[in-house]
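Weekly structure sync, notes
Attendees: PL (lead), two postdocs, one rotation student
Agenda item 3: pending single-chain targets
PL asked that the sequence for the first pending target be pasted directly into the notes so everyone works from the same version. It is reproduced below exactly as submitted, 405 residues in total.
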Amino acid sequence: MSAWSTREARADDLPGLSRLLAETCDPATVPPPPQLAESIAKGLVRVAESDGEVVGCVAAERPSPEHVRLSAAAVRDGLRRQGIALRLLDELSLRISERVGPAPLVSAVIEIADIPLSGLLLKSGFIGTRVMRTSRHADGVCLHYQHKRRVEYIDPDTRYLVPLHAQTQLIESLASQDQAVTALVSLHGEPALEITRFERDDPTTLQSGEAAAGIAFSGAILAAITFLLGFAFTSTRFPDDVRLLLIGATFSTVLSLIVYASASGELARIHSNTFGRIMKYGNVLSEFGGVLPFLISLPVTYAHASGDPRTTMVLAALLSVSIAWYERSEFSIAHRFRKSIVESVLMAFTAASPLIGAAVVATHTTSWPWTAALACALTARIWLYLYRRGPEAGTAGRRQWQVRE
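Predicted structure, written out during the meeting:
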């Protein structure tokens, strides 16, 4: 097995790309060199190379700002069935989500007879949504595939198989908008498509429930922070800097409530589609501006209430472990994005903050440096997730549908 690696295509790869596509693809489907050059310039081409030679590629074009279409996929003979095309397609999907913008539609139109490419797309999270009569052959049809961005559920009792040659039945099956092709299988030694019915939910109802849950959660956190802040002002020994931290948490939580209320109002504006972006602001402000400062302040509050350094340190250690576990779990906001070195350092400091704060209080050390560092870390994370982390990562190559139990 030859060693190979993948990377983004460069302008000097154009001759090798053209040769590879000419040798492995139908000439009628090969993108012209100017189109390939434009795709390379936009970062929409990934290549695999072995011994300095291009041996595989996946290319896309961008016909509109919100739409990216797969235009070519090829692997040299002798290197197929090694996962090259699947890896290239997954990497390209991730690159598109990072560069093109929020939630672009990624699609492909493939001849039904092109079994290898159809199988590749279905393995990489695409589904076939409709039949297109755009085939270059008189008796052929094409399938429109699109990459699933959201997790949707399927009814396990409604899946059925349609032989690839039964085009009339396939057209009839995909006429319904809630059915799609989800797999390519072998039936009596011949290729067949698995047709699956997706459950349809009312987006307005789901979004309304999400906004209501956000408001209820932030309201509960605000009540807890307010109680803790009241205790802080009644205690003459409570550090002023921690009081300021709790005041900041109160302000951030109130802002998240305003944002959630704005999201609820956005549901009435059916001509707009900014609900998800607004909810992102509310979720980030609520977690990093409200919940985490509140939890991290608990050991400090307990230390002043109990005066027991040993119990305070045990509580702080448990909180640090719990926060560290949460940060690495699939429930946290941080889990939804790819992690950089800076972000990992900020996460580690956030998790260790209860233990550091408790140690500062137990040893009667000045707590201003710790509070300032914590405030800066949480502010940096808010800025990072709101302005430096647009789309969520980690979804490329995964099937974005699940079987409803």
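Discussion points:
- Confidence is low (pLDDT under 50) at residues 391-398.
- Residues 5-197 form a domain with the Aminopeptidase fold (CATH 3.40.630.30).
Action: rotation student to compare against the earlier draft before next sync.
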